[in-house]
Amino acid sequence: MSIVKHAIPVATTLDLAELWSQLQDWATALGFSQIGVADIDLAHAEPGLQAWLADGCHAGMAYMAQHGLKRARPAELVPGTLRVITVRMDYLPRQTSPAWREDAWSRLADPGAAVVSVYARGRDYHKVLRSRLQRLADQLAERIGPFGHRVFCDSAPVMETELAAMSGLGWRGKHTLVLSRQAGSMSFLGELFVDLPLPLTSASSAHCGGCRACLDACPTGAIVAPYRLDARRCISYLTIEHAGAIPLELRPMLGNRIYGCDDCQLICPWNKFATPTKVPDFDVRHSLDQVSLLQLWRWDEATFLRCTEGSPIRRIGFERWRRNLAVAMGNAIAQGGAWADDLCAALQPDHLWADTDLVREHAAWARAAPSTL
Fold this sequence. Notes:
By secondary structure, this protein is α+β, with helices and mostly antiparallel strands. The chain is built from 16 helices and ten strands.
């Protein structure tokens, strides 16, 4: 989709400073935590992107390489783009306890607990941010008339982190996520490419200093250097994007994480400032912050589809869901304890008649876990 520019330059017909003030008010009313405006010159980010792709750190995400440097060139991705409006939306559920990080570490230490990344416990953020960004664009069109724009939310080759940092939403932390002094990293990002020469907002300075807590906390060592993530070892990649068998040597490191991983965020000192969202969509569904591995293993496919409707979890499908659960159950069995016998019984071959070969292989590994880990 190309941007069609105004016949009359908007800079001659609009008070852009006043328009920017109005945009901030609209964004706040729509539930966004912060808004900024970035330039479209990302040339400084191109060498790092090329090196990351050349080293294969994108793993099986071939689409990362297919678009090449378009990711760093907004005006090539959407011709006519002059600015990128960036937004940040907090996602900690509204009922989150002040001790949420301590609670999360406790669940990770409970072998029978199923751990789903915080961001995925509510409604799919793609749907939430995209619809609200479109409403922001609609409000802007009502104010100034038709203008060229396109909405993005983790949905195209866009360097979201770089644009967010350039526009002052935060800085790129060593775990590669955007960090804010006011809100940590527990936020979603979205973008609105526009053909309006809006005033740029200032970038914020970095405040990681000498801290390397996220590197040290990563269970699989996927943060191979500050600001560099190797997806081939990342639990979020392995449990969500990766379609095949999880590498044998990494399975024990997954622990009881069945969808995503928050460890680098839980350990980050800046996340003591993370605040609950005001958006009801991110409230926890189906007790995904309290559920056990055995409870989820008992879901059939119909239950999985019903309970993940409107959730980001739905996209991985039932097979990967069962694969991930089998690995976590194997790790729990290896630790012994109250859950072990029940989990082992649930993984027996006579209970797997409806499963795929991929799930059966992971279940067999899980049953043998005490002798292999």
